[in-house]
Amino acid sequence: MSKILDEHWFKKKRRIILTNDRHNTSVVLMVHPNEPLTYKQSKRAREQLCGIEGCLCNEKLGTHGPQGYDILYIPGDGWKITLRQLSIF
């Protein structure tokens, strides 16, 4: 039963919010877990979070500050966003 639920979880799109606390902006994206962002999604995130050419916060999709997600660039694949593992002690 749990295997079926796990497979269903990975097929469903998830809503994530990326923020830039330097420019006080945010963007909402619907993404599939474990799949790279589309070109259109990454372009939209960069433009809405920080559309300033040459700004330093434009390194990771225009985000700045804590996100709750790991944002990775995979050459040949594109930008990938994964949930950060939270430790409970």
Offer a few descriptive terms.
89 residues; alpha+beta; two-stranded antiparallel sheet
Question: Topology, pairings included?
Answer:
Blueprint: H1 2-11, E1 14-20, E2 25-31, H2 39-49, E3 69-74, E4 78-83
Antiparallel strand pairs: 1-2, 3-4
Structure description:
- This protein has helices at 2-11, 39-49; strands spanning 14-20, 25-31, 69-74, 78-83.
- With 89 residues, the chain is of the alpha+beta class.
- The protein has one domain.
- The strands form two sheets. It has a two-stranded antiparallel ribbon. The protein has a two-stranded antiparallel sheet with strand order 3-4.
- The longest helix is centred in the middle third of the chain and has 11 residues, at 39-49.
- The mean pLDDT is 79.
Assembly annotation? single chain
Overall pLDDT, averaged?
A: 79
Number of strands: 4
User: Total domains, how many?
Assistant: 1
CA radius of gyration: 14 Å
Reading side by side through the largest sheet, how are the strands ordered?
1-2
- The amount of beta strand, in percent, is 25-35%
